[in-house]
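Please review the protein record below. Let me know how this chain folds according to its tokens.
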Amino acid sequence: MTTTCDSMRCGVEQQTRTPGATGSRAGLAAWARAAWARLRQMRAAAAQRRELAALDEIQLRDLGITTEARRRELRRPFWDI
């Protein structure tokens, strides 16, 4: 804080930047990057599950995936990575 006095007023002015402002913005930016990365992962998992759903029995057998394992994977919500 700084104190100012002139002919019209005498008082205390707040600083325009607070000491923790830079750290808060950096924290918010880091959180936003992490959230965006998580969203991309969820979208990728959902796309992979759609591809898994499109496979037929022969393709599943070639990949070594059982029908029950496929069913379990397809029942998972998109946010469950």
Remarks:
- DSSP finds three helices and two strands in the chain.
- The longest strand covers residues 2-5.
